[in-house]
Specification:
Length: 268
């Protein structure tokens, strides 16, 4: 809460005026119409004295919008965190997932995420938060009140989220596909080249550079097949080509990115 007080109470008199509220909302990267700001001021200013106390602001962050089935701001924020936490299930671990989110959305400083960058991140998850909910989420994530979210703070919030249970699926064991078995062997042969590099990430970057002959930042189907034959002496047959592409092209967009190559080689 200290961080939000610092943003809104500019003259440090313990009260937040309408103009301070407007400036604070702008500082957080929130775009709001004048009528919305007036409505927000009227809702938060419960004693109608024309100013907001810290207590009124705090209560506003926990208030419940009036629609059926809503359990309150904090309950909804927890639901948001659960959905964010579920996104990590596609990654090897939570650290890798948090690093990915910061790489994608923390444009100013890859180690910290601003309020505006956090909102851009949430858009990809199709969240529709009210202004109080946005402020409440920021308050929850920003542990030290410095108006930005560190990787550690984001990680801690997702680790401590209540009610999260990993999705468990029961899958019948499938017979081993000989094409998949050969793909495993091919990927292990490719990965063996990483021994000459400092780490797998550096090796993947070098491999991308070699295979990406048209320099568009991705490896196409033909670049993959021709590249592994020329660089690693691996002849990939027709059925195996499709199996290898399925293994590497995780998002099924027809090309292989650096992240996809790194994940595939990390698993073998």
């Amino acid at each position: 809460m200290i961080g939000l007080q610092r943003i809104f109470d500019l003259d440090k008199d313990g009260l937040i005026s309408y103009l301070e509220l407007v400036d604070g909302i702008k500082a957080l990267g929130i775009t709001a119409k004048k009528t919305d700001m007036i409505d927000m001021m009227n809702i938060i200013d419960t004693d109608k004295d024309g100013f907001l106390t810290n207590m009124e602001l705090y209560k506003a962050l926990d208030m419940s919008p009036q629609h059926e089935g809503y359990q309150g701001t904090q309950a909804y924020i927890n639901d948001v965190l659960i959905k964010l936490r579920r996104g990590a299930e596609k990654y090897h671990n939570l650290v890798e997932y948090v690093n990915y989110l910061f790489e994608q959305f923390a444009k100013t400083n890859s180690s910290f995420m601003s309020f505006h960058e956090l909102m851009n991140c949430l858009k990809t998850f199709s969240f529709n938060l009210t202004q109080p909910e946005k402020l409440s989420l920021m308050k929850h994530l920003d542990e030290n009140g410095d108006n930005q979210i560190s990787k550690e703070e984001f990680y801690n919030a997702l680790t401590a989220v209540k009610g999260y249970n990993p999705v468990k699926t029961t899958v019948k064991a499938a017979p081993v596909d000989p094409d998949d078995a050969r793909v495993d062997g091919a990927l292990r042969k490719i990965k063996a080249g990483a021994a000459q590099f400092k780490n797998l990430a550096e090796f993947c970057a070098a491999t991308m550079k070699k295979l990406d002959t048209n320099k568009d930042g991705f490896i196409t189907y033909l670049e993959l097949v021709e590249g592994v034959r020329e660089l690693y002496g691996i002849k990939v047959f027709k059925g195996e080509q499709a199996a290898m592409m399925r293994r590497l092209d995780e998002d099924r967009d027809g090309v292989i990115s650096y992240d996809e190559l790194f994940k595939a080689l990390s698993r073998v």
